[in-house]
Amino acid sequence: MPDTLLAAHLTDIHYPVPSCFQLRDLMSKRITGAVNLLVSSRRSFRPHLLKSLLSHLRDIGVSHLMITGDLVNLAYPEEYLRVRTHFEESGFEPHQVSVVPGNHDAYLPDAIEHEIFWENLGPFAWAAGPQDYPVVRTVGPIEIIGLSTALPTALGMAYGELGEGQLQRLEAILKKKSGRTRVILIHHAPCPGAESWHDGLVDGAHLRRLLWKHGVDLILHGHEHRDVERRIDGPGGSQIPVIGTGCAILDDPRPALRARARLFRFGETGLERSWVIVHDPASGHWKSPSGVFIPDSPAGV
Ligand SMILES: [Fe+2]
Ligand SMILES: [Fe+2]
Fold it and tell me: Which ligand ends up closest to the CA of 225?
């Protein structure tokens, strides 16, 4: 097995396809998503940055993408087909992309009923439908556990839920020690107080109990649209790093929110280093701002 891995965390792509919006959406929750798309996303989330980012990640030797949801805005097939085309054209193979859905990937019940996320991402979806989670994949020295918190919610709500069945299956997976560095991908952060009641993970306390009991090495999440580093309790007094990354293709004048990805170098002994790359609109390049390197130890994350 390869003993090192350079992987990238991307999240909340919110790929904009304004032409998807249909008149019948005026009567549905998609109207709020469409307003955001037309008023904000069209101006700020830039498709060309996805092409640029994927190309850069290939150039610097990233061999695996870890993507934590909200790939699109309204959960239309056309949106996913655009994202899928970017993956295909970038040269990343389906086995090099691990993606879990976010709340925007389950925007309305029909997105889940028709399995639009899974159907249209094809082999890049990593699962056949919402019933398949958790999904587990071995990638070099790490084991990735993908969770789904995606479910349709009422207007103004953006919370997520794992559900009893998925949590039971997760505990069975965690009980089997793999010997590899374990990384959870999840859209909503499993941290107390991370989000308001209408925007958080409703069964986060249940998940934290499982992780306190069985542990993992790293949790990556999205949903918050900003870089964030927290910890939750693990077994034996340990602390599990919980890392969120800002939006992947957001064109924003504020440097802290600008398009980005977070890189992780894993070795035989676990996570060795993590750093953020940010798009520089002046040069068009992806750069590592000074001071974002994290000490070479999982405990230092
Ligand atoms: Fe998002
Ligand atoms: Fe989200």
Answer: 1
- Is the overall model pTM greater than 0.90, yes or no? yes
Q: What is the biggest distance separating any 2 CA atoms in the chain, rounded to whole angstroms?
A: 55
Is the separation of the CB atoms in 21 and 38 below 8 Å? yes
Rounded CA gap, 108 and 211, in Å?
30
Q: Which ligand is nearest to the CA of 195?
A: 2
**280: number of Cβ within 10 Å:** 14
Nearest to 181 by CA among 144, 212, 134: 144
CA of 130 from ligand 2 middle (Å) equals 17
Q: Residue 40 has what pLDDT?
A: 59
Task: Give the chain's domains with CATH numbers.
Answer: 5-300 (3.60.21.10)
Helix, strand, coil percent values for the chain (each to nearest 5): 35, 25, 40
Pairing of β 218-221 and β 239-244: parallel
CB contact at 8 A, 86 and 122:
no
pLDDT one-digit tens code per residue, 274-298 = 999 999 999 999 999 864 444 444 4
Token digits for 223? Answer: 């949903």
Ligand 1 centroid to residue 209 C-alpha, Å: 26
